[in-house]
Design goal:
Number of strands: 9
Strand content: 5-15%
CATH architecture of the largest domain: 3-Layer(aba) Sandwich
Helix content: 40-55%
Number of domains: 2
Structural class: alpha/beta
Largest sheet: 6 strands, parallel
Strand order of the largest sheet: 3-2-1-4-5-6
CATH superfamily of the largest domain: NAD(P)-binding Rossmann-like Domain
Shape: elongated
Order of helices and strands: EHEHEHEHHEHEEHEHEHHHHHHH
CATH topology of the largest domain: Rossmann fold
Distance between the termini: 29 Å
Length: 316
């Protein structure tokens, strides 16, 4: 199987290196392209073939990968005068590893369908270190049968390549992941600054939190207890107690003149939940307010959750 890689920046270079090593070991080759030929020089010296345009990559390859800064660059690579659509072969699979817009990839997917080719939105997570070491998650949206066929090639540069759902699902998963992470980042800065201004040394705060429930278990892992199964009773930690704790935290913030925007939003939701009579339910019952606002239903079979948790444990 001839593979192509477009976009050899910080992330792309690491992934392409691993891909090339794996392809070479199984007797296959790599075709590469970047806006700067010098970015591909080390791959060319190792045996990769240079292509002048994305179209030339598409003409030569059965499976294509791209790692790009964002939607504008993706549009240019796909739809440019010498873009992928100009040269894509029938039956070829194209995995865009960019953190992209679900709307953009769904629109592009229709164009690839007219060519008899398969587009996957397949954003990655692991950072430059993960790209270099192969410790990388790839979340793929598209045709599952084609994904299964291509997975051995994905496995050459990522140890956690998985099928998420139809086209656009990979992008949505990545945006959930990143947005959650940055909300936590802002929240961490908020509560840490409150703690420091209240007189605690920063490392002492970090060490203390690491010893608590939040530090011992990942925040996303905890969603399997109440949120996913939609089961908030019996309470592991009562909502009325959480309301008290967040109220006290915001009180310290006021006393120390520390802005605590996220904490006050959380307190507002906790107060609304208290007023609905949920004080005896688990503290995560406040999540029901957002589920209601979003107009969705979330209730996963506990057996499916248990299987997913076990699968994650085995993959570590």
């Amino acid at each position: 199987m001839k593979a192509g890689f477009i976009g050899l920046g910080t992330m792309g270079a690491g992934m392409a290196n691993n891909l090339q090593r794996g392809l070479t070991a199984r007797g296959d080759g790599l075709v590469v392209h970047d806006v700067r030929r010098e970015a591909a020089q080390h791959l060319i010296q190792a045996g990769a073939r240079w292509a002048e345009t994305p179209a030339a990559v598409a003409e030569a390859c059965d499976i294509i990968f791209s790692s790009l800064p964002g939607p504008p660059e993706f549009e240019a690579v796909v739809n440019g005068s010498h873009g992928l659509l100009a040269g894509i072969q029938k039956g070829a699979a194209y995995f865009d590893l960019t953190t992209n817009s679900p709307t953009t990839v769904r629109k592009a997917h229709a164009s690839f369908e007219t060519k008899g080719a398969y587009l996957f939105d397949a954003p990655v997570s692991g950072g430059p270190r993960g790209a270099a070491t192969g410790k990388l998650a790839v979340w793929c949206g598209g045709d599952q049968e084609v994904f299964d066929r291509c997975k051995p090639t994905l496995d050459l540069f990522a140890d956690q390549a998985s099928y998420v759902g139809p086209i656009g699902a990979g992008s949505v998963a990545k945006l959930v992941h990143n947005c959650f992470g940055y909300i936590m980042t802002v929240g961490a800065a908020e509560v840490f600054t409150m703690g420091v201004k209240a007189g605690i040394e920063p490392l002492a705060i970090w060490e203390a939190v690491r010893q608590g429930a939040i530090g011992r278990r990942g925040a996303f892992d905890s969603l399997t207890d109440q949120f996913l199964p939609n089961k908030y009773e019996p309470a592991a930690f009562a909502l009325r107690l959480a309301h008290k704790d967040v109220f006290l935290a915001t009180q310290v913030g006021r006393e120390m003149n520390v802005p605590m925007r996220l904490a006050n939003i959380a307190l507002s939701d906790l107060t609304e939940a208290m007023n609905r009579g949920w004080g005896g339910q688990d503290s995560r019952a406040i999540m029901k307010l957002q589920v209601e606002r979003a107009g969705v239903e979330i209730e996963v079979d506990p057996q499916r959750i248990a299987e997913a948790v076990e699968k994650k444990g085995k993959s570590r």
